[in-house]
Amino acid sequence: MMRRMMPGVARIDPVILVSALALSVLGVLFIGSATIGTKFEGLAGRQTIFIGIGLVAMTAAILFDYRMLLKFSFPIYCVCLLPLVYLLVFGESIANVRSWIRFGKFQFQPAELSKIATALLLAYLFENEDETRMRPATLVRIAAIVGIPVLLVFLQPDMGLALTFLPLVFVGLFFGGLPAKGWVAIALVVAVLSGAGWFVLKDYQKARIGTFLNPDSDVLGSGYQVRQSKIAVGSGGFSGKGFRSGTQSQLRFLPVQHTDFILAVIAEEWGFLGVVLVLGLFAALILRAMKLAQIARDRGGMFLVLGLAGMMFFSVVINASMMIGLAPTTGIPLPLVSYGGSSVATTLLGIGLILGVQYRRFANA
Amino acid sequence: MLRTREDRRALVRRIEISRVAVGAVLSLLAVAYWSIQIVRGEYYFNLSENNRIRAVKITAPRGYVLDRNGTPLVENEPAYTLHLYRREARSLEDSVRFIVELLDLNPEVVRSRVERGRRGPEYVPIPIAENLSIEEVAAVEARAVEHPEFAITVSQRRQYIRGGSAAHALGYLSEATPEQIKASNYAYAVGDWIGQKGIEGSYERLLAGVNGERRVIVDSHGREVNEANRLEASPGQNLFLTIDSKLQEVAEEYFRDKVGAVVAMDAKTGEILALVSSPTYDPNWFTRRVTAAEWNELLENPDKPLQNRAIQNMYSPGSVFKVFLAYGALSMGLVDPNMKIFCPGHAEFYGRDFHCHKKGGHGLVNLRDAIKVSCDVYFYNLGKKLGIDRIAEIASSFGFGKPTGVDISFEKSGLVPSEAWALKRRKARWYPSETISVAIGQGPLLMTPMQIARGLAGLVEGGRLPTPHLFYAAQAPGTNAPLRYTGETTSTMPITPEQLKIVESGMWAVVNEPGGTAYGSRVPGFEMGGKTGTAQVVGKGVTIKAGVDKSKLQDHAWFAGFGPVDDPQMVVVVFVENGGHGNLAAAPLAKLLFEARYAPKPPAPVQAASPKPRLQTVSSRDPR
Fold first, then answer.
1. Domain check: are B167 and B289 in the same one?
2. In this structure, are B252 and B230 located in the same domain?
3. In CATH, what number is assigned to the domain containing residue B339?
4. A122, A183, B264, B319 - which has most CB atoms within 10 Å?
5. Mutating which of A131, A231, A239 best tests the B interface, going by the most B Cβ atoms within 10 A?
6. Which of A43-47, A134-138, B170-174, B494-498 is predicted with the least confidence, judged by mean pLDDT?
């Protein structure tokens, strides 16, 4: 293992690396634009620091043999879930949600790291599960691996973050080879659970889903964000109003425009071209990662890449749909672009793992 | 069921299928954005132009300032301000021309304010003119349709009821500077008022309250269509000062034609009862926005009215210092109070002749007499015996050389010279002959009037130094629970009551015995003690040659008094710049202050009455 520590930089996939860096830079630029002259001014600088931390984590992930991580994925998973339990018991509430651990001036969202740990454990499961058709026991294991962190995060309660784990279930089921009968059964269970779930949801969560279904019902309340975000996106037109010149964004009607609604700011200031640039970079990153999964050396590597790429794809689609009212506002950030230290740093760590799988794709590597 | 090992190709094929799906979903998203941004782009663009949110700040009413008895010192009055909303203006140049003509404003001033405001974000309105008359307000409102970029807001203007009275204690308001805005983490915006100096500066957070905000939806003419939401302002707290207006007025009347400073302070608590720095300025100037010319006049005034002489100017304490030296020497056991020294009117030390202020000399004097008649020769000898480092130790123990910690800013720390100081600052050894000068409060030794007041309070209280303060109580409108000052006293240099009695008796004699230097200022029926001082103007010889106004070369006059002698409650320090001798220029005011506080009624501690402010709920509103 150690003799492989010398990086053959040329072997690192340039498409993934460049897309990830470009998205991070876009994020810093537009966080700056969205926060100019507000009390959030300076967050762009902080984001740069987090990107730096993320790049260090990414480099470490490339150099470290992912097979080692897979082997120890269960202890890693357990360690990563501990802070989630801690938060539920002792966590201090920030904006009514107990999802942050404070370190002096900085806060860390441990759930972000547990996403990676969950993806690792899932990949380890499929390293050893290589039947053509999925066994019921495997089904239960997938449910448990993903279900536990989802439940812990959902109780914080951070519904958006909990949802971002779900693609892992799909990755496990679909690529693990769940037969048609299984899909039907799962569809039934989901239908029943979502009916029951309506009673578990908080009022504001219900309101958001209600507004999603009928956005004009409450123009100044819950539907206000969606409406204003659509105005921001739509008014950007083909080439946008210019960097830092978005009237909607600069008037700060969007409550969290530097975090969840950053894409609306990009859409307003750089127009459709900006949106295509962002979606194009994500397409390049995700499609390339899936290509790498196809040539990965082992099943564990394949499933690790698929899980990580799947989670990113899901977040991108939900976030981009949120901006234009195609999905309810659930508080899912745009990976790499939205402001958020834990999110951007762990996403870069995940990209490092993907690059690591590709880096060691040859059997003797 | 038959289980077989999975063929890798099946997995690769599923990945291939999902790649197509991923590509398709992202393409569909792009199409959705296309339909909103390109197909319906114009519709949304119009919405964004016509249906915008304007954030209108609700300025929290600033707390009033009252004296310790509830006499109002500072209040607010309504004022109309004209703002320019840049986004509404077709051409800034046209807008400026229009408003300059309409209201007959100075075009240069308006242009410079627009330029300054343009550095901020576009949605922040630029303040153009303040204190509009009702007629001007009507004129602007009448043209609101053609010129939607101008809007009038009603705000509260700070009103300093007594003009320049206690101005240095109160401070003033001015527009927040870009640095202050940044330092406040954007809690303040361009055009916001912020407290400067005095208690307006120190207690800004308490007084300012928390601003609210309305989010209003305005149409393309900038007219309010609907209010989206509203966060009410929470008003600032009313502040009660330790100042007693009655004493303050007496002191100000005395200083009407004099330059200098007065500090009257509760000897036990450090509550400042009167604080004067003369000449003064009218803080109302700043709220009406001073012009550049007015500013320059204020800044170029040779008497520097903005300086708070009580804390910002350092002077030689002159003979006032002798009582501290006497106290220190006694507590160190280095002087026998009964020992007599012969004063022939001058004495030689280190080969130099030093004069006593009394030409013929005082004859034989002991410590008490030396204080009473302010004998220089006695203290020359005492100073020589102590040496500069012990003198520095004594001075430091009374808080000299350090800020007093008074709750207003820009306080100077004064200067206490020592051997180490000379080596560090002058890069030269201390001259022993300088010690002789320092012993009578001359030489490099420098103090502020506030420091002397605190030091004297510490002396008469047997070594307990209070922290001087102006904060008496604060009260949030609508609540009855006042916030009280919790300052600490520092204890230094313990002294036996017998030793303290000797110094106090000397200071009593200064005022109450024939021959005492302030005998002319004794208060009938009241026992005031004190010490006069006369400080030479530094660089006298040099400036005489330069031909400066002769009145500026007169000595500075000091008087530091306390009373009643048997249970000291108030200390008074009077400093008159170029006033001549302390007994003539400074001591009479101390007499007036003690009279004002004690003569009309028997001495009683000031009532810590539960303050009942006159509350008035005010909030700024947008007239539209």
1. no
2. no
3. 3.40.710.10
4. B264
5. A231
6. B494-498
Judge whether A255 is closer than 8 Å to chain B, CB to CB: no
Task: Using an 8 Å CB-CB cutoff, list chain B residues near A38.
Answer: 186
| CA within 13 Å, CB half, B76 | 28
Q: Which amino acid is at A365?
A: A
The pLDDT tens digits for A293-350 are: 998 888 999 999 999 999 999 999 999 998 898 888 778 899 999 998 899 999 999 9
Residue type, B259: V
Minimum mean pLDDT range among A68-77, A89-98, B551-560: A89-98
Contact present, B482 and B548 (Cβ < 8 Å): no
Place A17 in a pLDDT band, splitting at 50, 70 and 90: very high
| Structural domain contains residue A307 | yes
- The count of domains in chain B is 2
Chain A contact for B55 (CB, 8 A cutoff): yes
DSSP string, A236-285: TTTT-S-TT--HHHHTT-STTTTTTTHHHHHHHHHHHHHHHHHHHHHHHH
Residue B560 inside a domain? The answer is yes
Residues B253 and B225 in one domain: no
B294 and B221 both lie in a single domain:
no
B230 and B249 share one domain: no
CB atoms within 10 A of CB B33: 25
Q: Which of A39, A271, A279 sits opposite B185 (nearest CB)?
A: A39
Res A313: pLDDT: 97
**Residue B522 and residue B588 share a domain:** yes
Top-confidence residue, B561 or B209:
B561
Q: Do A283 and B121 touch (CB under 8 A)?
A: no
Count of other CB atoms within 10 angstroms of residue B610:
10
State what percent of residues in chain B have pLDDT above 70.
Answer: 86
Residue bearing the bigger pLDDT, B475 or B114: B114
Domain that holds residue B199: 53-239
Q: Is the pLDDT of residue A216 over 90?
A: no
The whole-angstrom separation of Cα A21 and Cα A284 is 12
Do the chains contact at A248 and B26, CB–CB below 8 Å? Answer: no
Out of A204-218, A228-242, B472-486, least confident range? A204-218
Residues B261-309: tens digit of each pLDDT: 999 999 998 999 999 998 999 888 887 766 677 778 888 888 888 999 9
Nearest by CB to residue A324, choosing from B33, B41, B124, is B33
Q: Are A250 and B186 inside 8 Å of each other by CB?
A: no
Q: Is residue B459 part of a domain?
A: yes
Q: Does A137 touch chain B (CB under 8 A)?
A: no
Q: In terms of pTM, does the model score above 0.80? A: no
Q: How far apart are CA B53 and CA B57, in angstroms?
A: 13
Regarding whether B250 and B221 lie in a shared domain, the answer is: no
DSSP B441-471: T-TT-BB-HHHHHHHHHHHHTTSEEPPPB-E
H helices present in B513-575, as ranges: 540-546
Does residue A91 sit within a domain? yes
The pLDDT, as a whole number, for residue A204 is 72
State both tokens at A85: 């339990």
- Tell whether A216 lies on the interface with B, counting CB pairs under 8 A: no
Whether chain A has a CB inside 8 Å of the CB on B108: the answer is no
Per CB-CB distance under 8 Å, the chain B contacts of A135 are 3
Report chain B residues whose CB lies below 8 A from the CB of A276. 30, 33
Specify the number of domains making up chain A.
1
Flag whether B39 is in a domain: no
